[in-house]
Design a protein that fits this description.
Length: 287
């Protein structure tokens, strides 16, 4: 297997404006209106130093956050072949091209292996700036192959979820990915290897309905939107007003849907501690 020398575009160069920190020297926090110095935000891992608002991160930054240093990327060359020749207001091919241009990736996923606090792990991180982090054949294939890599090499599996759901431009083929990934996670479970799901803002649709909720531990970032259908659709269906904070991490924790809400700055150490327990590895001195 070749080493992929691949450098996804830095966050600042991505063109999806809605999903990233605004450019410039100063950034206004959308929650507390504090004016933040961009360089401080980098140090604080894109978390507001005043109110802990978590700005969105891209897939490459997620990997940098979790891996110890170098990591090895796999399957970066996989591309969707537009199996249904799908067109809505734009052709799917045009949407793919726009996604590639915006992110420097070929689809909404980066899968890699490396170590996390010296523990061997395989991590797949989803990229929201690529067609809303939607899960199609490439995302499903890349994650499944990374789980199989974890199985072969006895690694823990981590998926950082960030998705609008299944990719409808690939129709039922995208829905098949839910079953495929879930089955691979079942094999991982039978091999007694842990899987941790990290739910970030937003995690919705078919991703929530499959691997996002299948972790031995499901850990969410604070105030992340996590759900299946959107609140408006639910309100129309059940004809009731939804409670305050519905579909946010803290609400889901209270209702027992997820296991933990963890500040991004503690995420790596919390995952490492959990993996050491699950893999029966000796605790470090700091732990
Ligand atoms: Zn703030």
């Amino acid at each position: 297997m070749a080493w992929f020398k691949r450098t996804p575009k830095p966050f600042a160069e991505q063109t999806d404006k809605a999903s990233r920190v605004p450019e410039g020297l100063w950034v206004k926090c959308p929650t507390c209106s504090q004016i933040l110095y961009n360089k401080d935000l980098v140090v604080s891992l894109q978390v507001c130093t005043k109110c802990r608002h978590h700005f969105r991160m891209n897939a490459a930054e997620r990997l940098t956050l979790l891996f110890d240093g170098e990591y090895r990327i796999f399957d970066a060359e996989l591309r969707s072949n537009d199996p249904l020749a799908f067109t809505d207001t734009k052709s799917y091919r045009q949407r793919l091209e726009a996604g590639i241009k915006a992110t420097g990736l070929n689809d909404a996923i980066i899968s890699a292996t490396g170590t996390l606090e010296t523990i061997p792990v395989a991590i797949s991180a989803m990229e929201y700036a690529f067609i809303g982090g939607s899960m199609g054949v490439v995302v499903g294939g890349s994650i499944t192959r990374n789980i199989e890599r974890a199985l072969d090499e006895r690694r823990a599996m981590i998926i950082v979820c960030c998705s609008g759901g299944a990719r409808m431009m690939e129709g039922t083929l995208s829905l098949m990915q839910m079953a495929k990934i879930s089955a691979a996670l079942g094999r991982l479970d039978r091999a007694r290897l842990p899987y941790i799901s990290v739910l970030t803002d937003p995690t919705t649709g078919g991703v929530t309905a499959s691997y996002a909720m299948l972790g031995d531990l499901n850990i969410a970032e604070p105030k992340a939107l996590i759900g299946f259908a959107g609140p408006r659709v639910i309100e129309q269906t059940i004809k009731q007003k939804l409670p305050e904070g519905f579909q946010r991490s803290e609400f889901l924790l209270e209702k027992g849907m997820i296991d933990m809400v963890v500040d991004r700055r503690d995420m790596k150490s919390v995952i490492a501690r959990a993996l050491r327990v699950m893999m029966e590895l000796p605790a470090t001195e700091s732990a």
